[in-house]
Amino acid sequence: MAYYEDLRKHVGSAPLILPGSVVIITNDKDEILLQHRRDGGWGLPGGLMELGESFEETAIREVKEETGFDIAGLTQLHVYSGADHYLQVPNGDEMYCVTALYTASEVTGELCIDEDESYEFRYFAADRLPEGLLKGATKYIALFLEHKEKNRANR
Questions:
Q1: What is the β-pairing status of strands 42-43 and 46-48?
Q2: How far, in Å, CA of 138 to CA of 145, rounded?
Q3: Is the pLDDT of residue 155 over 80?
Q4: What domains are there in the chain, each with its CATH number?
Q5: 133 secondary structure, DSSP code
Q6: Is the model's pLDDT at 4 over the cut of 90?
Q7: What is the reported pLDDT for 89?
Q8: Which residue from 32, 25, 26, 28 is spatially nearest to 46, judged by alpha carbons?
Q9: Which of 14, 36, 50, 52 has the most CB atoms less than 10 A away?
Q10: Residue 39 has what pLDDT?
């Protein structure tokens, strides 16, 4: 049982602060890997932290669980938190998300979809992102593209 599920037994749907990580993975064509999630829309691979994990360990574990990929060379782009990251899910559970955004420079393995969480994974060009992109993923990708552009300008 996941940590947050155990907490829910004690606090019901009351607001929780839940830390997690998401990872932007790109291929050799500079396309971004997106997850068509069973809980709605397109997003990035990632998820919630378990007890004793760091943000980096969460990112590595979640990507492995959801995609089958092993990742390394993580670069943290930003940590999102605060009132703008409040979420109430359809069952009434409330949470404030603290999300670390990463990129991975090393990706190995074969794509293997966790069908409990995902319909599919697909790479998209940054200028051809799918309809139904989740609000968080839109924000994360915009920051990634801005960061990439700044790095390109500084060369």
A1: unpaired
A2: 11
A3: no
A4: 3-153 (3.90.79.10)
A5: B
A6: no
A7: 87
A8: 25
A9: 36
A10: 80
Q: How much is the pTM?
A: 0.92
- CB neighbour class for 71 (10 Å; exposed up to 12, middle 13-18, buried from 19): buried
Distance separating the N- and C-terminal Cα atoms of the chain:
47
Radius of gyration of the chain (CA): 16
Place of tokens 């992102």: 129
pLDDT tens digits along 43-100: 999 999 999 999 999 999 999 999 999 999 999 999 999 999 999 988 999 999 999 9
d(CA 88, CA 96): 9
What single DSSP character describes residue 37? E
CA pair distance 92, 132, nearest whole angstrom: 22
